[in-house]
Amino acid sequence: MSEAREQTGLSRRKRAVAAVAGGAVVLAGAALWTSAFVKSPAQAAADAGPPARDVLTAPVERRVLTDTVVTRGTVSASQTADLSPVGAAVDGSTAPVVTKVMVRSGQTFPAGRVLVEVSGRPVFALPGALPVYRDLKPGSHGDDVRQLQKALASVGHSTGSDPSGTYGPGTKQAVAGLYAAIGYEPVPASGVAEGTDGDPVDAARDGVKQARRQLDGLLRAEPGKKQDADAIRYAREDLAEARTRLGQAEAKSGPMVPASEVVFLSGFPARVDSMTAKVGREVGEKLATVSAGRLVVKGSLGAQEKDLIRPGQKVEVLSEAYGDKVTATVASVADVLTAPESGDEGAATDGQGYAVVVKPEAPLPARFAGQDVRLTIEAATSGKKVLVVPVSALSAGADSRTSVTVLTASGERRRVEVRAGTSGDGFTEVVPAEGARLAAGDKVIVGVTR
């Protein structure tokens, strides 16, 4: 009986060992299956390799091709001037002060109009292109005097028979008439009013009187006394010199136009762009900014753009503020680098660029003044419809010949030799070589994607 129990225990142990061995076999098989059919994401990506490549195409087009340059500009008049009437203070005051303001920002005004008053003295505008740079006084000569004479005549004050460019008696009379018309007394050139103490003309006249009396006394010799011929000769010379000094004093006397009281503008009616003067304030660097002439657009170009732009090219001026588009032309392009004016945002670097002036074909509305606008300049054009392809479609082979690759409907690739022409806005004009075939609608390869 004990022997039977031993055989039963042995059988159980054999079955347990067999079960363990069978489990090991199953686990080993599972591991083998897993290694063969289950992969990590990294391994799967590595085994997959790159995806198949595909080509990008673009159609060949037939259209007018233009090359454009886009920059910014500021609308302003052809001439802008600052009112900076820096002059001597009047008697009893320590510094010039604004006493009246006659115009406001945005207002237009005619020639001869007083704009502001400084310490009781007027600041007015006259027509002319040459900026004032000195006081215009009797006896003066030059182009600025000629400009003053023309300006006086334009507002109704003739300069008479004075030679052009010479401030003579007729010009004095015209200046006196202008000041009377605007309601002010003119400033005397000598700084002293005629007939008052210190007047150089009065002093010269006294000199003539004294010299004349001296000569008359010598000529009226006492009876029986011989006249002194030398003394008479010297007296005559003294009288002549006194008369010369009187003539010089009279030529240099009379009303003058101080540089602090006039601004010359190229056209009227002119505009007040900004008025900063306030009654009671001392005169600063600038009282107002005025402008004249037709509104133009001033911008700035970078060196790479400057070579593409020349006078006469078409320009589209866009006012984002009003949504208006205006056609214009390039009026001028500077040859030297300059710092851009306030508001200009060209493609220049380091704050410098080549100034460009754009002239609208029709006068701009007054509301455009001072606006920042976008300029789209047509730098080049094909002039007519031509075949064009994207620039990326062009390639150069080992033979240095330019070509494009056409992808046919069947998937075949056909190399077409071309000659490149005008480029603009990412496209290039192409002309097929002799015997080559290229037409609008053909698909050309511009790149490859995965």
TrEMBL record:
This entry carries the following GO cellular component terms, namely: cell envelope
Provide the Peptidoglycan binding-like domain boundaries: 142-176
- Give the matching InterPro entries: Peptidoglycan-bd-like, PGBD-like_sf, PGBDSf, UPF0194_transport
Using the UniProt record, give the first listed, main subcellular location. other
Task: Write the record's keywords in alphabetical order, separated by commas.
Answer: Coiled coil
Location in or out of the cell: Cell envelope
Q: Which Gene3D superfamilies match?
A: 2.40.420.20, PGBD-like superfamily/PGBD
Coiled coil stretches, renumbered: 201-252
* Keyword Coiled coil set for record: yes
Q: Does the keyword Coiled coil apply?
A: yes
Mind telling me what this protein is named? Peptidoglycan-binding protein
Q: What's the source species for this entry? A: Streptomyces arboris
Organism lineage reads as: Bacteria, Bacillati, Actinomycetota, Actinomycetes, Kitasatosporales
